[in-house]
Design a protein that fits this description.
mainly alpha; 27 helices; about 65% helix; globular
Length: about 675
């Protein structure tokens, strides 16, 4: 294939993934699943496990305040439950009667359902239930929310009764019954928005699946662990008989166990906290920045599955962002623009540039997949028989209708709440840019932890000025922080990984859609029940809830009192970021030896990358040495070691949550996500 053919096959903008550009483009074998997948028992078990994820995480994270089981895209709780199924429960069932054992496809279906459930409790429900009560519970004479915010909040949108809210925040003991009748109208009125959001995310991934999976062949590093755990064996997965796996497992498992025991026996294992592997920082550039050295064994393991060019790009761009920010600080180049809370990047200049890069990533991806998107359109509109969508989870017509109909519901719901239609469309576009772009980062870059660099509401306000949006619209924008701020896991990314695994299951994929919906419903119901129960028993003030609380409402109140106008420099910096991202993309396309993948640029300045860069560096360095001196053969042999590191870090965290529950211990954190 000559260069022009390669351009055509990739859509003309992004380099084709199938073209081997580096020595580490090692194919990963994905054997087809043996036996059935969409069985009644798999659906039932998946529903139960999805409810367990929803309720269990809603208990362990806010109340026990232990290790996070569903904070990031690695969906730790789902991985651990699959590990338990594969290593303990399924072998026992096979030993009792071989027909009772779950087949590989069934295990993967159950795992997909748990992955879909994972974003619901910590990232969504906890913020939803707490944020819709914040404007009324925290209203005081000093913050003047009653004067500036309350008149613009629709009566149907939030609970207003202090008799309902005070017990929820302060707790009333185990004998106090949750006042479901008072909450039910508000919970129900949010359901159209919530389900439209979920369906839009799922539909977008169905439309993009073939482009990402079949045409560009993205790596999807996060699915490598479940694929290995679900691999068919006589009784156990072959992985568990690999000594290299257990060696990798032992190193983090021993350290994590000692780390957990410190909460119980601090005098016996003082060294477990004496050298904290998580938070060691070094001042650099005359103290204008900090270099974080944070070792997380499971993060290192995930990054080992990346292409070296992507791993290199991720940690290099993080360090470059520190250099740029320090230079700007020393030169006195600062921006006083207030973009609001919740962004992954604190510096407004770098934040605008990152947003410009995300725009190029999103629009460039659409351009690269224009042929596939054209086929989707023709199949959906005219039913073109030459285009086969029978192996997709939804027909292209159903996916397109769901995408458009769900988007209309989202914009209409926001309009009824007070946000003008044009700004609702703008918000939805910015959210699509950030969520689709970051899902691509998860699928190709293997980010098991992270979040989109910007919050759509803050970018929209900066782009058009608050004066044009109006007070009711600004208050509605504050509520969008529930599903857009600190989004360290969301349904779109879970669906993308689930569809990748669905391809491994094989066969018709239509039942997978209903499995995903069932998982979301079970997780949403279980998480809502658990968090409401914990709130009225112990009080939200005493729980660890992932919510930005006052920030969004203080932000929009300030804008209502002192409206802002469009600031040209924000647009200029966004354009600079877009040009840099486009230049990086073209450099990678035209120069085969260009070392930096453009994926690292948009997320380089984010605070989460500050914590991850060292693990990326180690994974990159180890893999470069392995490929240089041992080639693809040594890389394949070393993979079980790093899968072992992942499970060895996570398993003690799950075990200690059970121990902490029965012992009454709170705050025994072994890992953060």
């Amino acid at each position: 294939m000559d260069n022009s053919d390669a351009r055509a096959s990739s859509g003309g903008l992004l380099p084709p993934e199938f073209r081997s550009r580096l020595a580490d483009d090692v194919p990963v074998a994905e054997a087809p699943a043996a036996g059935r997948a969409f069985t009644a028992r798999a659906f039932l078990l998946g529903a139960v496990m999805a409810a367990a994820v929803g309720a269990g995480v809603s208990y362990s994270t806010p109340y026990l305040q232990g290790s996070y089981m569903a904070l990031g895209f690695g969906t730790v709780g789902a991985v651990l439950l699959l590990f338990a199924l594969s290593a303990l429960i399924n072998p026992m069932l096979k030993w009792l009667r071989p027909a009772w054992g779950l087949e590989r496809g069934e295990l993967l279906l159950v795992y997909i359902m748990m992955v879909m459930a994972s974003p619901i409790p910590t990232i969504f429900v906890s913020q939803w239930l707490s944020q819709i009560t914040v404007p009324f519970y925290y209203a005081t004479l000093e913050n003047e929310w009653v004067q500036w915010l309350h008149p613009h909040i629709p009566g149907w949108m939030m609970p207003r009764d202090p008799v309902t809210q005070q017990p929820f925040y302060e707790g009333m003991g185990a004998d106090y019954a949750v006042p479901w009748r008072a909450w039910l109208p508000v919970l129900l009125v949010w359901q159209p928005f919530i389900w439209a959001l979920f369906l839009v995310m799922i539909a977008a991934m169905v439309i993009l699946r073939r482009q990402w999976v079949d045409n560009e062949r993205l790596a999807y590093p996060l699915v490598q662990v479940p694929l290995a755990l679900a691999e068919a064996g006589e009784r156990w997965p072959p992985l568990l008989g690999n000594r290299i796996f257990w060696l990798g497992f032992a190193i983090p498992a021993v350290w994590s166990t000692l780390h957990g025991l410190y909460s119980y026996f601090p005098d016996l294992v003082p060294f477990a906290r004496g050298v904290d592997l998580y938070y060691q920082s070094i001042p650099i550039f005359n103290g204008t920045s900090q270099l974080m050295l944070a070792l997380r064994f499971h993060i290192l393991g995930y990054f080992y599955f990346l292409k070296t060019e992507i791993a290199l790009s991720l940690w290099v761009f993080n360090l470059l962002a520190k250099v740029v920010q320090s230079v700007l600080t020393q030169l006195g180049v600062v921006s006083s623009q207030n973009l609001g809370p919740g962004h992954g990047i604190s510096n407004p200049l770098l934040l605008h540039q990152s947003m410009g890069a995300m725009l190029v990533l999103f629009l460039g991806g659409l351009w690269a997949g224009r042929r596939q998107l054209g086929e989707v359109w023709r199949k959906a509109v005219s039913g073109d028989p030459a285009i086969d969508d029978s192996r997709e989870m939804l027909s292209y017509r159903a996916a397109l209708l769901m995408l458009c109909g769900g988007s209309a519901v989202l914009v209409g719901w926001l309009w009824l709440a007070g946000l003008p239609v044009w700004f609702g469309l703008g918000l939805l576009f910015l959210a699509a840019v950030l969520f689709v772009g970051f899902t691509r980062l998860v699928a190709e870059g293997g980010l098991s932890d992270g979040a989109p660099p910007a919050v759509p509401a803050g970018i929209l306000i900066a782009a058009v000025g608050s004066s044009s949006i109006g007070a009711p619209g600004l208050v509605v924008l504050a509520t969008t922080y529930i599903w857009t701020a600190n989004a360290r896991s969301f349904v779109m990314a879970s669906c993308a990984n689930g569809l990748k695994l669905g391809g491994v299951i094989g066969g018709g994929q239509r039942p997978l859609f209903w499995a995903m919906l069932l998982a979301l419903f079970m997780a949403l119901a279980a998480a809502t029940w658990m968090l409401m129960s914990l709130g009225y028993e112990h009080g939200v003030l005493n729980l660890r809830i992932s919510a930005s609380k006052h920030g969004p409402y203080n932000y929009v109140q300030g804008l209502i009192r002192h409206p802002s106008e469009l600031q040209l420099w924000g647009w200029v910096n966004t354009g600079i970021g877009a040009l840099i991202m486009l230049g990086l993309t073209l450099a990678r396309w035209y120069w085969a030896r260009w070392p930096l993948h453009p994926l690292g640029y948009p997320v380089g300045p984010t605070w989460i990358m500050d914590h991850l860069w060292f693990n990326m560096f180690l994974a990159w360095l180890i893999k470069v040495l392995v490929l240089k001196y041992g080639g693809a053969e040594l890389y394949q042999k070393s993979r079980p070691f790093f899968i072992g590191m992942i499970l060895g870090q996570l398993t003690p965290g799950g075990i200690f949550l059970v121990v902490d529950h029965f012992s009454g211990t709170v705050g025994n954190v072994i890992f953060w996500g």
